[in-house]
Task: structure prediction
Amino acid sequence: MYPFHWVPAAGQRHASLDERPDGALAYPSGTEVSTLCGAQLAADNSVLAWFWESCVPCADETRRIASERTGGGRGDQSARSARNGRS
Ligand SMILES: [Zn+2]
Result:
């Protein structure tokens, strides 16, 4: 599971790292969420809203988060800490 959620608001589908209310599959309409593009918007959970276009900065940010989650573990970090001894 990725840590972000998509949320339609203000005419576009944004993504947010905010916690959703317990058990909710989406933010209820009117929920104030801070989006990945840096806005504070009220969610619109109507059916039509899910057909809006994705917000481009939010989409970029979700791709970055997703690749951080899956692209790691190449050993760079252990190599760096090994070199961090006394010099
Ligand atoms: Zn956005």
